[in-house]
Amino acid sequence: MGAEPTGALPAPPSSRPVRLDEVAALRRETYTVHMLHTHLLHCWAVVAPDGTTVAGPSVATPAPDRATTVRQVFAGLIAAGWDGAAPVSVGTRGTGNILADAPVPVPVVGIAEPSRLRLAEDAIASVAKALIGDVTISTDASLPRGGGPAGLGYSITSDGPLGLNIVGATTCPVAGVDRARTAELEAIRAGIGRAKCELGLFWAPAHLVIESDSAFALSYLVRTRAGRAPVRGDVCCDKVAARILELVEGTPTAFTRVWGHSGVAANEIADRASRLARRHAQ
């Protein structure tokens, strides 16, 4: 089973872009993951340095969720002999490859000691980060006239080979001095919560970008994160903001302002989703 790891845990894995013409030179020591992901077909294969290939099943629509796919690829790497220390090159046709350095040992399957589980999470995260890339969550909220639950909408995308493309909507009762501002924060919370639920253990974005057309919501989060008192805040906003910052803890996160109804595709999608949710609740 091997000795129990002692001392400090390894540093988090890192990733860097790799040109396609570098892949051949790297192949002698690199495990290469080839992927094809379309709306009709989803398949992958792992090629070991010695040429051994472990292929996953070709899956017709609907494709498995991203967390399942990452889990399958990780299992394929293990089956091909990956020890967690060798670099992994992940790419899809037309997107190039990303080399994910994973300087952590893979624990023995079945061992449940917390330190070994942590090492397993780090090893999985190194692959997930290369597969998923940077994640952008665009959100919006819509309030009905005369009261009632707010409609919350969000669009979740990522730029990795396994690009996320999720549109969702929900409703939420809101309170506070300014219900509209609370609703905008609730929309951000809902979008992040959905992304984390979708990826589960494989929530490992290299960077997270939160987009909103609410300058108030973004300023509220930035000031709260910096330990400064938000402008015109109230208890309801404080609670939602604290939950949002808890959800993104440990993840490099940027809050970006976009102008509503200005043609920004993700914001327009989130806006439509929020209005649909509001109408459904009425």
From TrEMBL:
Pfam families tied to this protein: RNase_H (PF00075)
Q: Which PROSITE patterns match?
A: RNASE_H_1
Molecular function (GO) terms for this protein are: nucleic acid binding; RNA-DNA hybrid ribonuclease activity
Check the record and name the InterPro entries matching this protein: RNaseH-like_sf, RNaseH_domain, RNaseH_sf
In what residue span(s) does the RNase H type-1 domain sit? Answer: 131-279
- The name this protein goes by in its record: RNase H type-1 domain-containing protein
Q: Which organism is it from?
A: Kocuria dechangensis
